[in-house]
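lol forgot to send this yesterday, sorry. struct tokens for the thing we talked abt
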């Protein structure tokens, strides 16, 4: 019986998290972040395709130090 209550509570928490996340994703800030991440991904692809190991390592180091 305790397991049923635990799973029920977990299900409610997951549902609440989904609702909050969907609401957050509709904000202007979320749209700006999405665009920023798209641009960052494009730059990282360019860096990776460059074959320049120093540049690739520098980009990796930047991610690690930035905490992304």
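and heres what i got for the seq, position by position
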């Amino acid at each position: 019986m305790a397991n049923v209550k635990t799973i029920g509570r977990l299900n409610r928490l997951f549902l609440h998290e989904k609702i909050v996340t969907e609401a957050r994703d509709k904000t202007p800030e979320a749209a700006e972040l999405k665009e920023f991440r798209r641009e960052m991904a494009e730059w990282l692809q360019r860096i990776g395709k460059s074959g320049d190991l120093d540049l690739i390592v520098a980009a990796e180091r930047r991610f690690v130090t930035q905490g992304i």
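The two ends are 42 Å apart (CA to CA). anyway ping me if u want another try
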